[in-house]
Amino acid sequence: MNCPACGGAMTDRDFGAARVDVCDSGCKSLWFDWGELARLDENHEGAGDALQAALLNPRENSPDRGRLPCPKCGIPMFKHLYQRSKEVNVDECYNCGGFFLDSGELHQIRDTYMSESDRRAYREKLLSEIPEFTETSKQIDAEKERTEAILSLTRFLRASYWLGAK
């Protein structure tokens, strides 16, 4: 398999929790097959010399680079923020589920990894900054209160009221 960024040959390496393809002879990028990145995205996961070497590589990423082809499928991958890090863009193949990380991105993902509570707080922060979301949330809450009030006022119209059920 060849690296989609520089064209160099990628070598299969043992990272402890997964076997990862590494562009040893070129840009030092990493290819994770489906499910492998999730086994290595936290600091306590994985082990071995290959992982340690990958974590020492500096981050190199061209922000104006176009979409890269998947090294497995050949279809263009999509660039987006990694789900557990609000700072690292990754390239993902939506066909095979693989992830391509440029040099240094695994280290940055592990450094900025967000727990579930961190993700929830970050999501709430982002949503609160959208005026339409805040306004819509207020409207929904007002509708809920109105619905509960109507149900309370019309309880005597229901058969359960007259039959003594609650």
Describe this structure in words.
- By secondary structure, the protein is α+β, with helices and mostly antiparallel strands.
- It folds into 2 domains: 11-111, no CATH class; 130-163.
- It has 5 helices and 6 strands, in the order βββαβββαααα.
- It has helices spanning 49-56, 105-111, 116-128, 131-153, 159-163; strands at 11-14, 19-22, 30-32, 78-81, 89-92, 99-101.
- It has a 6-stranded antiparallel sheet with strand order 1-2-3-6-5-4, with helices on one face.
- The model has no long low-confidence stretch (mean pLDDT 88).
- How many structural units, i.e. domains? 2
- The computed structural class is alpha+beta
Q: Can you tell me the overall shape?
A: elongated
Q: How do the helices and strands follow one another from N- to C-terminus?
A: EEEHEEEHHHH
Largest sheet: 6 strands, antiparallel
Radius of gyration of CA atoms, rounded to a whole number: 24 Å
Count of individual beta strands: 6
pLDDT below 50 for ≥5 consecutive residues: which ranges? none
Question: Percent of residues in helical segments?
Answer: 25-40%
**Percent strand:** 5-15%
Provide mean pLDDT, rounded: 88
Query: In DSSP terms, counting alpha (H) and pi (I) runs of 4 or more, how many helices?
Result: 5
Q: Report the span from N to C terminus.
A: 67 Å
Spatial arrangement of strands, main beta sheet: 1-2-3-6-5-4
Task: List the keywords.
six-stranded antiparallel beta sheet; 2 domains; single chain; 6 strands; alpha+beta; 166 residues
